[in-house]
Design goal:
Shape of chain B: globular
Largest sheet of chain B: 7 strands, mixed
Mean pLDDT of chain A: 97
CATH class of chain A: Alpha Beta
Order of helices and strands of chain B: EHEEHEHHEHHEHEHHE
Radius of gyration of chain A: 11 Å
Bound molecules: iron/sulfur cluster
Distance between the termini of chain B: 46 Å
CATH topology of chain B: Rossmann fold
Largest interface: A-B, 29 and 32 residues
Number of helices of chain B: 9
CATH topology of chain A: Alpha-Beta Plaits
Number of domains of chain A: 1
Helix content of chain B: 25-40%
Number of helices of chain A: 2
Shape of chain A: globular
Distance between the termini of chain A: 4 Å
Oligomer: heterodimer
Helix content of chain A: 10-25%
Strand content of chain A: 15-25%
Radius of gyration of chain B: 17 Å
Low-confidence stretches of chain A: none
């Protein structure tokens, strides 16, 4: 099983909530700018697919799933 | 095979919200969408939106909605619910809209015990118009109309208004709770409160009211994560969290 976190690049508004609340420090500040001028976070390793980042995202930009 | 832990709610359209980054409206709108999916309200629900930062929210949901004028959402909802009591009517208002512009409408809807659900977003400021003082602004909090160094002072502007407590005094209001959305745990608690409030309406009880302390990073002139802290440090001291009234048992 692989744990996957997808951030909808152009939906993100760089609030940083997902970075703050990820219990595993998987997410960090991004360096690429989106259509609206925000810098969405980048996804690193170690995700446990807890869904916390998606739960706190005000823009519903995050999808979390497990895949075989 | 793919097993989703979190997926964008079905009732949402593809629209990107007009909210600022980190705005609490986005979190509450999302919880509503999750509940609309889970409770099967897309066909039978009607959302009544206010004036304010959330006044374009009807385009985020693929379902029936009504856009009410300043503060008039509870009056409009009264007509909708009375015309068709089988509908689940959810009223959504901010503090400028509910407490200032529409104090008469919300009070009288509560006095009449209208059987709909009201979600009240309290961010202690007028967001959309540019961070003016609201009736909910804290003492000492600065706003464009309550400048530093004093911020809001009692002599000029009186005291912050505690709507969840005021409405709890009315017999027609059977449920009143104050929650917030500044942490994952509290977002879950907020969803639970909203679910209970909507369920009470489906059960045909009186008015159910949920006040949400909601971050407004732009109006408060703070980074979003700082705004989450400000809710703990300042807002919850004036507006305590918790169930203020639950008369749903007596209303059996
Ligand atoms: S699902 Fe949990 S562990 Fe994975 S990135 Fe999101 S918050 Fe972090
Ligand atoms: S919580 Fe959502 S909007 Fe905020 S930074 Fe993360 S992905 Fe972007
Ligand atoms: S002004 Fe405040 S309430 Fe309005 S969208 Fe921006 S953060 Fe949200």
């Amino acid at each position: 099983m692989k744990n996957v976190v997808e951030i909808d690049f152009n939906r993100c508004k760089e609030c940083g909530y997902c970075i703050r609340f990820c219990p595993k420090g998987v997410l960090s500040k991004g360096e690429k700018v989106n259509k609206k001028g925000y810098y969405p976070p980048v996804v690193g390793d170690g995700c446990i697919a807890c869904g916390t980042c998606a739960r706190v995202c005000p823009d519903t930009a995050i999808t979390v799933y497990k895949e075989d | 095979m793919r097993k989703y832990v979190y997926k964008r709610p079905e009732v949402f359209t593809d629209a990107i919200t007009t909210y600022c980054g980190g705005c609490g409206h986005g979190i509450v709108n999302k919880l509503m969408a999750e509940l609309i999916d889970e409770m099967g309200l897309q066909e039978n629900g009607i959302l009544v939106w206010p004036i304010g930062c959330s006044c374009l929210s009807d385009r985020y949901y693929d379902m029936d909605a009504y856009m009410a004028l300043h503060g008039r959402a509870p009056a409009a909802a009264t007509g909708i619910k009375r015309a068709d009591p089988s509908k689940c009517v959810i009223v959504y208002q901010g503090d400028g809209d509910l407490v200032s512009e529409g104090m008469a409408e919300i009070m009288h809807a509560g006095i009449r015990g209208e059987k709909f659900t009201v979600i009240f977003i309290n961010n202690a400021i007028y967001g959309m118009t540019g961070a003016q003082m609201a009736p909910t602004t804290l003492l000492g909090q600065t706003a464009t109309t309550a400048p530093a160094p004093l911020g809001r002072i009692v002599d000029n502007s009186g005291y912050p208004v505690k709507m969840a407590e005021i409405l709890a005094e009315l017999p027609g209001v059977i449920y009143s709770e104050r929650v917030t959305v500044n942490s994952p745990q509290r977002i879950i608690a907020c969803k639970k409160a909203l679910k209970k409030a909507i369920q009470l309406q489906l059960d045909g009880k009186g008015m159910s009211f949920v006040e949400v302390l909601s971050p407004c990073p732009t109006g408060w002139k703070m980074a979003p994560t700082k705004a989450l802290d400000w809710i703990d440090d300042e807002m919850t001291k004036v507006y305590p969290l918790g169930v203020i009234k639950d008369a749903s048992k007596e209303a059996e």
